[in-house]
């Protein structure tokens, strides 16, 4: 199974698009700034090129693992030890029959959303407990990643 690096890059870049919308002051930006303790003065001192560059790198790393969660065929590859050339003939037959099954945007979006909701949101929530952040902060930050993973999962899954 080949890794589609273009799909991973597009998925990573989609987080910037979602972020520009999600954290816009007319959407959740103003509430997020209040709940996180961020001010416009603090933001002005930021190196935006570094921020966006690292954001893309981090999102690319997330997309790399997300493909394992949204593309079921990675599970089949894992069952043969990761090297399809050493698999029994039944693996080849299985992949011929099911190699593209469930490879739609809708299916990837479902699994991406579930990953955001059941993995990322609890991680952010746990950190927020110890950082004394509000539930609004958890919903805004966790919701952002649930939506991002939904879109990322859809992109990754549909781009065979």
In words, what does this structure look like?
The protein has 160 residues and is mostly helical. It contains eight helices and no strands. α1 runs antiparallel to α8, α2 packs across α8 and α7 packs antiparallel against α8. The mean pLDDT is 94.
Low-pLDDT runs of 5+ residues are none
Instruction: Name the structural class.
Output: mainly alpha
Please tally the β strands and state the result. Answer: 0
The residue-averaged pLDDT reads 94
How much helicity do the residues have? over 70%
Radius of gyration: 18 Å
Global outline: elongated
Order of helices and strands: HHHHHHHH
What is the topology?
Blueprint: H1 5-22, H2 29-36, H3 40-44, H4 48-70, H5 73-79, H6 89-98, H7 105-131, H8 135-158
Helix pairs in contact: 1-4, 1-8, 2-8, 4-8, 7-8
Give a summary of the structure in a few sentences.
The protein has 160 residues and is mostly helical. Helix content is 76%, strand content 0%.
Descriptive terms for the model:
160 residues, mainly alpha, 8 helices, 0% strand
């Amino acid at each position: 199974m080949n890794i589609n690096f273009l799909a991973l890059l597009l998925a990573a870049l989609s987080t910037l698009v979602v972020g520009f919308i999600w954290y816009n002051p007319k959407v959740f930006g103003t509430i997020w700034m209040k709940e996180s303790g961020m001010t416009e003065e603090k933001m002005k001192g930021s190196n935006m090129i570094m921020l966006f560059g690292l954001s893309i790198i981090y999102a690319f790393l997330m997309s790399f693992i997300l493909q394992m969660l949204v593309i079921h065929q990675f599970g089949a590859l894992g069952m043969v030890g990761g090297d399809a050339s050493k698999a029994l003939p039944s693996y080849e037959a299985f992949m011929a029959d099911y190699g593209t099954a469930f490879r739609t945007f809708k299916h990837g979006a479902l699994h991406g959303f579930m990953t955001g909701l059941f993995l990322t949101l609890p991680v952010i929530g746990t950190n927020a407990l110890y950082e004394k952040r509000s539930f609004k902060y958890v919903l805004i930050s966790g919701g952002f990643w649930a939506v991002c993973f939904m879109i990322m999962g859809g992109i990754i899954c549909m781009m065979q």
